[in-house]
Amino acid sequence: ISEDETAKVTTWLKLADLVKIEKLHAIQWENKEQQFEALVVSPFVLCRPVS
Prior knowledge:
The chain is α+β, with helices and mostly antiparallel strands. Helices cover 39% and strands 24% of the residues. The chain has a domain at 22-51.
């Protein structure tokens, strides 16, 4: 992402390895009290759930 590898990011999006967060995601995570690890790669914030 920081190196602007559009083809890789496009593939990740198609495979759902990378998703754009929607309101429904936020509601579900809030209800589960889900915790995340986050990494800022401006202008993006990458998050993954902590098990």
